[in-house]
């Protein structure tokens, strides 16, 4: 049968494409005479393994590509000394037609020791190949003059460090890298909002906006979002539970702000600023989007933080949220004006002060699985961390601010939902002051930031809205009220052209489906397990598992837990 068979030879691949050809190799057909027909027919041979096909192709390629060192290992011969051999013992590796073949023979030799140095013959010893058993290219045994041999060192690729990014979070992570000098990953993402033709980052100093040479971001104003707008909502329409679906039906989509630019310490206009050795690999590493709302007794902040790695430090602000509100100074003569919200943004401490509040998770509330949850409506260990840092109001803070934090370990989004109580912003006042001051059209200074800590559990970078009013400027504890942005209390229907962040309906569709479905479904078991572990209690399994919607006390008065309610149908959320 074999005499009647003519095997069709597969075309030999070019050096630049033989690897791809091997991956696409197909069994060759053979022509045999069909019984009684006298005509050949094509038959498939017995199954040939892919490994065998690849091996055959590699052998054929090696015959041509030996000089390119692609087959017998990744190596290259380095000429150390001509017309010389080392005085060490040598081992004959047999005749080799080329220098590359001699290097390949050295590469293959492993016993009694791995070949690292060799001699290659010339003139009357042309083609002779000898392994030199010295351990150094300096030949500690001494050089011997030989006009018929040259001394070489074999450099293996495996002997050389592979430089590259070794951080799995980076987009250019190199699994083969064996050495990272610390800069391969840190230079990946560019937080600059724009760069000039010469590559320089947009900078408020070079643009003439910031003129203080000792405080290079002093004077910065974000032209697109210097004023942001809070939408009026009905009292009780927003429940502080970390579930943002109630914002979708009571909030203008045009007032969603995403990665708002700010000026860094050097004046560069960026969306994220690293600190204390922190690295940033792009928006998926850390980025902040937010919305604002208000009712008759609260100012609301909803922030979604895309964060690839969540930790919580000992202090609320370490990797949490910091907020500041500008109020009139206690030194103003008119007592009625003292401590009222304003937008003066003055450097004069007799005019502008900040109410400072920090909020976040506690270390024990971040589970190893990546889940995290807390609510100020719960008692320890599930209550959130709230640090009332500084107040200029008579009597200080009333401490009625509410917060809920939820972390989705799959999407790696942490949701902060905060209701700042009017009493914590304005202090205890008579009702008519609240009614006359807290109304549509009010403008006041506002700043917030969320800190990024990754595995360090400390402040190593931040993003937010005018963050430098609150960070890197201690000012005797007063921070820097002249660096805040401005919030305006607006109607629900209004959508100022310059105030939106450009997310529109797509944000809410993703918000509803992502938060209302993915978090709800994934969190129901983890939250129950988390509560059981922290409280040392068991919960009834008779009730059906339903998606997470709120974080408050159970109405039954039993042990505090995360209550659950079924979400609205997806069709009603769009």
Description:
This protein has 574 residues and is of the alpha+beta class. Helix content is 14%, strand content 24%. Strands 11, 12, 15, 16, 17, 18, 19, 20, 21, 22, 23, 24, 25 and 26 form a 14-stranded mixed beta sheet that branches. A 5-stranded antiparallel beta sheet has the order 4-10-7-8-6. Strand 22 (402-408) and strand 23 form a beta hairpin. It starts with 5 loop residues before the first strand and ends in a 39-residue tail after the last helix. Residues 1-49, 58-72, 494-522 and 531-574 have low confidence and may be disordered.
Q: Fraction of residues in helices?
A: 10-25%
Q: What does the overall shape look like?
A: elongated
Coarse structural class? alpha+beta
Annotation, overall tally of beta strands:
26
Task: Enumerate the spans where pLDDT stays under 50 for 5 or more consecutive residues.
Answer: 1-49, 58-72, 494-522, 531-574
**Rg:** 35 Å
Oligomer: single chain
Number of helices: 7
Span from first to last CA? 71 Å
Mean pLDDT: 76
Strand content: 15-25%
Largest sheet: 14 strands, mixed
Offer a quick outline of the entry.
The strands form five sheets. Strands 11, 12, 15, 16, 17, 18, 19, 20, 21, 22, 23, 24, 25 and 26 form a 14-stranded mixed β-sheet that branches. The protein has a five-stranded antiparallel β-sheet with strand order 4-10-7-8-6.
